[in-house]
């Protein structure tokens, strides 16, 4: 039996995403938390593509202020970044994520 197709393109939410959000979208959602663009309980569940893109643009604008470098963040943002992303790594590991595994598997057996 075929699985039903989604009627609209919406995001599944950070914790429903692959490995509890260890994806590019998950990364900028967490960065939105770091910069205070979103509250830390906002997972973007059900957001449409245009809303996700607007968030991405806002996060990029914030990173541009710091030349895209964690080391350039003020101490309070750097500490928040470390906490949020370390928690995400732990959550992802609990869901079976292994750093680099997704990249290695895409390269095939000849890699």
From TrEMBL:
<protein>
    <submittedName>
        <fullName>Uncharacterized protein</fullName>
    </submittedName>
</protein>
